[in-house]
Amino acid sequence: MSDRIDTSEVPPLTGQTVVVIGGSAGIGLATARRARRDGAEVVLTARNPERLATAAADIGARHTAAFDAADPAAVERFFESVTAPIDHVLITAGRPNYGQLLDMSAADVRDAMAAHVVSALEVARHAKSKMRPPGSLVLIGGTGGRRIDHRLGIVPAATAALPPFTAALALELAPLRVNLVAAGFVDTPLSASLLGDHLESRREQLRATLPIGRVVTADDVAALAVHLMVNTALTGATYDIDGGQQFT
C-alpha cells in the first residue's frame, strides 16, 4: 500500500451547471470554455443558430438554445424548458449604443438605458426557481460610467445604472448571488465589428497607454467571471477589469 498522498484537486465547478446567455462568441464563449475546463456542464444560448452550433461543438456544450435574450417571452420559454438544476448564469447578450444624446429618439434612449437591466431582470425572474444556492448570476457591463466623454454618448449613463441594480437584485435573490463585471475595452469580435478599420490602431494605443502594457482579452474576463461563480463570499458587487484604462 502506497503512502503517497494524492494532491490532485477536483476542478472547482465539478458537478455544476453553467448557463451562458450570449455564448456563441467573445466573452460568453471564453467563459463557457473556461467553465468546461473547470468541470462544469455548460448550456449555451445565442441568437444565431449556426454560430451557436459551432461554439457548442467547440467546447462540448451539454445543450443549446437559439433565441433572442431581449425577448422576454423567449427567455421565459427557455427557462421553462430547463429540467436540470442550474448553478450559475452569465449574461453577455446585447451590445452598447454609442448614439449621441440629442440625436436619439425617446424610444432609442429608453432602449439604451433599460436594455441590460431589463434583460438581466427577465433572466433572474425566470431562472430563480431553477437555481440552487449558493449559485450566481453574473452580469457583464462596462466602465463607461466612470468617465464622461462626448464620444460615448449615452453609454456612461446606461452603464452607471448597473452597479446599484446589481446590488438591489442580489438582496432580492439571496441566498443566490449576483455580481457585475465592468469591462473596459476587450478584444472581441464585437469590438472588431464596432471599430472596423480602426481596430488595430485602438489596440496599439491601448498597448502603449494601459498600465498592464497589453489589451484585455475575453479570456481575462472569463477568468474573472468564473472566479465570481466559484467564490461563494461574493455578491452584490461590481468588479472592474480594464487593465487600468480608466486611469489613463
Itemize the secondary structure elements and their pairings.
Elements: E1 17-21, H1 26-37, E2 41-46, H2 49-59, E3 63-66, H3 72-81, E4 86-91, H4 106-127, E5 131-142, H5 155-160, H6 162-173, E6 177-183, H7 189-195, H8 199-209, H9 218-230, E7 238-241
Parallel strand pairs: 1-2, 1-4, 2-3, 4-5, 5-6, 6-7
Helix pairs in contact: 1-9, 3-4, 4-6
Overview of the molecule:
This protein is of the alpha/beta class. It is built from nine helices and seven strands.
Mean pLDDT reading: 92
CATH level-two architecture: 3-Layer(aba) Sandwich
- So what's the CATH class? Alpha Beta
How much is the radius of gyration in Å?
18 Å
Class of secondary structure makeup: alpha/beta
How many DSSP E strands?
7
Tell me roughly what share of residues is in helical segments: 40-55%
- Spans of at least 5 consecutive residues with low confidence: none
Task: Please name the CATH topology.
Answer: Rossmann fold
Q: What gross morphology would you assign?
A: globular
Largest β-sheet summary: 7 strands, parallel
Order of strands in the sheet with the most strands?
A: 3-2-1-4-5-6-7
N-to-C CA distance: 60 Å
Query: How many separate domains?
Result: 1
CATH homologous superfamily grouping: NAD(P)-binding Rossmann-like Domain
Q: How much β-strand is present in the residues?
A: 15-25%
